[in-house]
Amino acid sequence: MIPTTDPGSSPEPTGSTDQPSAGLHPASGELLGPVEVAGLLGVKPQLIINWIREGRAHPSAVDAVGRNRFTREDVDSLRSTLGRRRTGAAGPEAGSERGG
């Protein structure tokens, strides 16, 4: 039997940074960090961080250490935002509708 606490040590937070990453496909209900979210969306993590700072991305939670955490629903919302940005971006065809 494994003891749940060691009487000689202080309690450790459950979200220790020593634990390995859950990867890109965490269990249902698990929260994701900006790196995992970026991996799911195919963008750089810095874009997610910038969106948080600009108020364009809204994490569902902030853990005790201050890290932003997202749900799958948050990722879906960001995916739709990303799709609007890409389809709304001016491409090579954007200027071809004007008569020239």
Would you write up a description of this structure?
The chain is mostly helical and about 100 residues long. The chain contains three helices and two strands, in the order ααββα. Strands 1-2 form a two-stranded antiparallel sheet. α1 (about 35-40) packs across α2. It is globular and about 35 Å long. The protein starts with about 35 loop residues before the first helix and ends in a 12-residue tail after the last helix.
Q: Descriptors for this entry?
A:
2 strands, single chain, two-stranded antiparallel sheet, globular, mainly alpha, 4% strand, 100 residues
CA-based shape: globular
Q: Output mean pLDDT.
A: 73
Count of separate DSSP helical elements: 3
Broad structural category: mainly alpha
- Taking the alpha carbons of the first and last residues, their distance comes to 80 Å
Percentage of β-strand residues = under 5%
Strand order, main sheet: write it out.
Answer: 1-2
Q: Uncertain segments of ≥5 residues (pLDDT<50)?
A: 9-27, 90-97
The tally of beta strands, per DSSP, is 2
Order of SSEs = HHEEH
The profile of the biggest β sheet is: 2 strands, antiparallel
Estimate percent helicity.
25-40%
From the alpha carbons, calculate the radius of gyration and give it in angstroms.
Answer: 20 Å
